[in-house]
Amino acid sequence: MSSTSRAPSVRFEHLTKIYSGRSDHPTVAVQDVTLSITAGSLTVLVGSSGSGKTTLLRSVNRMVTPTSGRVLIDDHDVSELDAVKLRRTIGYVMQESGLLPHKRVIDNIAIVPRLNGATKASARERALELMTVVGLDQRLATRFPAELSGGQQQRVGVARALAANPRLMLMDEPFGAVDPIVRSDLQRELRQLQDQLGITILFVTHDIAEALALGDQIVVLAERGRIAQQGTGAELIAQPADEFVADFLGLGAGRDLHLQDSDGTQLVMDADGRPIGRLSGHRR
Ligand SMILES: Nc1ncnc2c1ncn2[C@@H]1O[C@H](COP(=O)(O)OP(=O)(O)OP(=O)(O)O)[C@@H](O)[C@H]1O
């Protein structure tokens, strides 16, 4: 998964994860999930709290070890790959940016290239380039994370994840903690970035509007990772598989959603003609 290789596909095969925890009652987080993620797509896993989204995501980079089943990146079973190397080749962005508080922005971004053997100078040069890629003013390079806004911290998180030139990126509610306007900017920029980079992105959210705005493919998860529906945003809206999906999309109770073209952007409109979101312009 170097910068020169193509974006990989990801496949979950009969994945089950049971957390034994400290209580008497083990939790079945996901049960027998089989799911294919197309190479080079931005696929969104969306579902309510506790549906197993994070568990699925973290099983890709081996932060979670499945109880049974397996995850394949292209044709490689991740359990047979070196966990440390695997994590260094996969970008990972989470809700709390996970930045190191005592390191300056530039050095936070440079961490993985440094671990991979880049010199300090070349890692920093790359970090500065990436700041521009994610829309950060390079003058922020010498600040500490606490001296940035939430949105800026998330951009640093994205830049850091991109620093190793990953062909696969995992994003766990990365924009959950920022205000709606910044969030919408970040979504638009991520879409553009993915169009340029052509990498495979697996993105977790519980927000259906975010899923519609971002996803080439959307996977709606019900309890224990049950796949209620997988398809493009347009397919989900046109033909929700069942009542669960319809409710999740807000299609129940007279909120008939439909799509309307506005200067090439597909807006999601409710029954009263109010735009409630926009659809990712990219459907493969
Ligand atoms: N380390 C753990 N130990 C015990 N139970 C866990 C652990 N991690 C997750 N779970 C349980 O597994 C289930 C799925 O959790 P997971 O975090 O994968 O869901 P999620 O869809 O990402 O939820 P959220 O949107 O709230 O983050 C939940 O019932 C959760 O309580």
From TrEMBL:
Task: Fetch the PROSITE patterns from UniProt.
Answer: ABC_TRANSPORTER_1, ABC_TRANSPORTER_2
> What top-tier enzyme class does this entry carry?
translocase
Alphabetic keyword roster: ATP-binding, Nucleotide-binding, Transport
Report the source organism.
Brooklawnia propionicigenes
Q: What PANTHER family has UniProt attached to this entry?
A: GLYCINE BETAINE/PROLINE BETAINE TRANSPORT SYSTEM ATP-BINDING PROTEIN PROV (PTHR43869), GLYCINE BETAINE_PROLINE BETAINE TRANSPORT SYSTEM ATP-BINDING PROTEIN PROV (PTHR43869:SF1)
Q: What protein does this entry describe?
A: ABC-type quaternary amine transporter
Domain ABC transporter, by residue range, is 10-249
The EC number(s) this enzyme carries: 7.6.2.9
The record's listing under SUPFAM superfamilies reads: P-loop containing nucleoside triphosphate hydrolases
Asked if the record carries the keyword Nucleotide-binding, the reply is yes
**GO: which molecular function terms?**
ABC-type quaternary ammonium compound transporting activity; ATP binding; ATP hydrolysis activity
